[in-house]
Design brief:
The chain has helices spanning 3-65, 70-79, 84-99, 106-109, 125-130, 149-152, 164-171, 194-205, 207-223, 234-258, 267-284, 307-329, 339-347, 351-361, 386-391, 393-403, 409-418, 423-434, and strands at 110-111, 187-188, 295-297, 303-305. It is mostly helical and 435 residues long.
């Protein structure tokens, strides 16, 4: 063998060894990436299995408490929190209540609020479980660049990670819940439970303080100003509303235990319904006040920041309030569905919203209720802005009285204060129109 032949052979063998090494390295990287993705997906699946075991057990118990009615059991499961930990806590409260001789009947406490269980008589446990099971998202595509020796000689792969996610998802399939349309809107009354009774006693001992805070909150919600007369931000108003819902729940619980119900939904149930709507609106609108500036997603899908976000939140909040009043506070004739409903509306600062919705309900031409009214009575024709009202507050009230004869002095004071009309001018208007 000549020198050149031996050199060429040795060079070929060296290059071949390098190529084999590069291919082995690439295969090893792909294997490690796939192993990591598979481990992460398997971990999610194992956690989901643990949660599903608890969820299924809790759902079975709820169905048993509902006398075997699967739909009612599922409704109760979701109203108790919709998560294994919260539902388990609720079931423990039931057991603790019965252990001291108190009675708690789930079907008596489950307020259907228009849900027709007969429509769901064929609902199976399996399908009910599929609506609450833990979802498992699929493995995400893996981005890997082939920048080794093979890529330098034109043998690299454009996307080394292509196919890894598909392989992993074939081994451990993603899981999605199955929505059951129409099986929502119920409420679960927890009054009478041992924990609720203990809470009621704690609330009763603190009732004087709670009532004082409640009254302060009513004034702030009605006027839009704090105790020092400073204008409240949308963030402040949301915080006060949430606090007021909690206070109303406690105070209503005491009231319902100490007096005879007047019919309709209990005050605690109405407060719970409002709290749920408020939380749903906060979630659906992505309203966020944790940063230096508030942000929100508008109905058109645009992200608004700062003052525009606050204004959009107010608009959506006003619309939600009007829908709540129409659904839970007033009947079709514009009357309060119960004394409790009237008290809840006043406590949440919804008096002006009640009057607006009532006016819509009692129009002679019986126009359908607009569930998305302007934020206040200022949206009436001729007084569409705050500036227009401040320019002629007496004319605004006269216009409002022509449309709503039930408008009184107290409501006038509340509304005009909300729009920033000076107190002495308000009293002149009230004196001239009501006294």
């Amino acid at each position: 063998m000549s020198f050149f032949t031996g050199f060429a052979t040795g060079l070929a063998q060296s290059v071949d060894a390098q190529l084999q090494g590069a291919m082995a390295k690439r295969d090893e990287e792909l294997t490690e990436a796939k192993k990591y993705a598979l481990t992460m997906q398997r971990t999610k699946a194992e956690r989901a299995d643990e949660m599903d075991t608890r969820a299924k057990k809790a759902l079975d118990r709820m169905i048993k408490e509902a006398n075997g009615n699967v739909a009612a059991g599922l409704l109760a499961y979701n109203e108790a929190g919709g998560e294994p930990e919260k539902v388990e806590s609720f079931l423990k409260d039931i057991d603790d209540t019965r252990s001291v001789g108190l009675d708690y009947n789930l079907m008596d406490k489950l307020k259907l609020n228009g849900v027709d269980l007969e429509q769901f008589k064929d609902l199976t446990r399996e399908r009910a479980f599929s609506s609450i099971r833990t979802e498992i998202s699929g493995a995400k595509p893996v981005e890997m660049q082939d920048d080794g020796l093979l890529s330098k000689i034109g043998l690299g792969m454009d996307n080394m990670g292509a196919g890894i996610a598909d392989d992993v998802n074939d081994k451990i399939s993603p899981v999605q819940r199955e929505a059951i349309e129409g099986l929502t809107g119920a409420a679960l009354d927890r009054s009478g439970m041992l924990k609720s009774e203990q809470y009621r006693r704690d609330v009763a001992s603190a009732l004087p303080t709670l009532k004082k805070q409640y009254a302060n909150n009513v004034l702030m919600l009605d006027s839009g100003q704090d105790e020092l007369g400073e204008k409240l931000t949308a963030k402040d108003m949301l915080r006060i509303k949430k606090q007021q819902v909690n206070l109303l729940t406690g105070i209503s619980g005491i009231a319902s235990a100490e007096s005879t119900a007047t019919g309709g939904l209990a005050g605690t149930t109405i407060a719970s319904l409002y709290s749920k709507r408020l939380n749903q609106l906060e979630t659906s609108s992505s309203y966020n006040t944790s940063g230096s500036l508030p942000t929100i997603t508008s109905a058109d899908g645009d992200t608004l920041v700062g003052p525009e976000a606050s204004a959009e939140w107010q608009r959506q909040s006003d619309a939600m309030d009007a829908e709540f009043v129409r659904d839970s506070i007033l009947d079709d004739s514009g009357n309060f569905v119960s004394t409790e409903a009237q008290q809840i509306a006043a406590g949440l600062g919804l008096n002006s919203t009640v009057e607006s919705v009532r006016s819509s309900l009692t129009k002679e031409d019986s126009e359908p209720v607009d569930t998305k009214p302007a934020s206040s009575p200022a949206a009436d024709a001729g007084f569409g802005t705050k500036e227009a009202i401040l320019a002629n507050p007496a004319g605004y009230i006269e216009d409002a009285m022509s449309k709503n004869p039930s408008l009184n002095a107290d409501l006038t004071r509340q509304v005009l204060t909300q729009y920033g009309v000076p107190a002495d001018q308000i009293e002149e208007i009230v004196t001239a129109l009501f006294e």
